């Protein structure tokens, strides 16, 4: 049998647990065969409490809709209908959903639920998966590896790192941040809209 080129244990870090981080994790876990000779250890780091929804699909008003057809929104690259099938399933629908633009928060729930399934598959396959509520604040390349530093000043070494940190905060060219009535980030809309008088 041919020897693998991987080191004895390959450590992979995914920074960011939004849609991209979860989709990548799924693809990785799905593609790994059970109880591999060369062990794989995957760590996913998310700075916020909630893993899955990220900024775009966080819990929010149901009128905030996905801007793409739900039939094309999926984290399963082999099944573009994965999300719509999940929705039909939880709503116990026998027929096809007519509305194609669904609430963004619903997609966030789908991501969270998918993550639970991914964790189970990892367990079954004997893949070590660490889910860490931590912010990565520094990456340093050391020879062929990467050293990550967390906000809690922990240091960890990885062989591969995927950066899935999403959108950065929008620019503030007029230095309005912190000023009264200036909204730097409108999300979640539920909270931000509450502070705007209805007749304004
Ligand atoms: C408000 C909004 C609405 C959108 N609506 C749509 C839509 O309807 N349809 C569509 O296709 N796309 C939409 N998008 C685009 C959307 O960004 C992508 O579809 C997708 O959510 C991006 O996923 P992501 O994982 O790259 O980023 P995010 O979902 O933003 O996830 C990044 C995650 O990384 C975490 N993170 C960041 N930095 C660190 C760090 N240093 N350490 C640890 N964790 C970190 C963040 O907390 C976050 O959870 C929208 C984007 C926004 C902002």
Written as H for each helix and E for each strand, in order along the chain, the element string is EHEHHEEEEEH
Query: What does the average pLDDT come to?
Result: 90
N- to C-terminal distance: 72 Å
And the CATH topology?
FAD/NAD(P)-binding domain
Indicate the multimeric state: single chain
Briefly summarize what is shown:
With 200 residues, this protein is an alpha/beta fold.
Structural features, described:
Strands 3-2-1-7 form a four-stranded parallel β-sheet, covered by helices on one side. It has a three-stranded antiparallel β-sheet with strand order 4-5-6, with no helix packed on it. The chain has a single domain, classed as FAD/NAD(P)-binding domain (3-Layer(bba) Sandwich), CATH 3.50.50. It is built from four helices and seven strands, in the order E-H-E-H-H-E-E-E-E-E-H. It starts with 8 loop residues before the first strand and ends in a 6-residue tail after the last helix. Helix 1 runs parallel beside helix 3. Helix 1 links the parallel strand 1 (9-15) and strand 2. The protein has 200 residues and is α/β, with parallel strands linked by helices. Residues 15-21, 45-48, 54-56, 66-68, 104, 135-136, 164-167, 187 line the site of flavin-adenine dinucleotide (FAD).
Outline the secondary-structure elements:
Blueprint: E1 9-15, H1 19-31, E2 39-46, H2 82-90, H3 104-125, E3 128-133, E4 136-142, E5 145-150, E6 155-158, E7 160-163, H4 189-194
Parallel strand pairs: 1-2, 1-7, 2-3
Antiparallel strand pairs: 4-5, 5-6
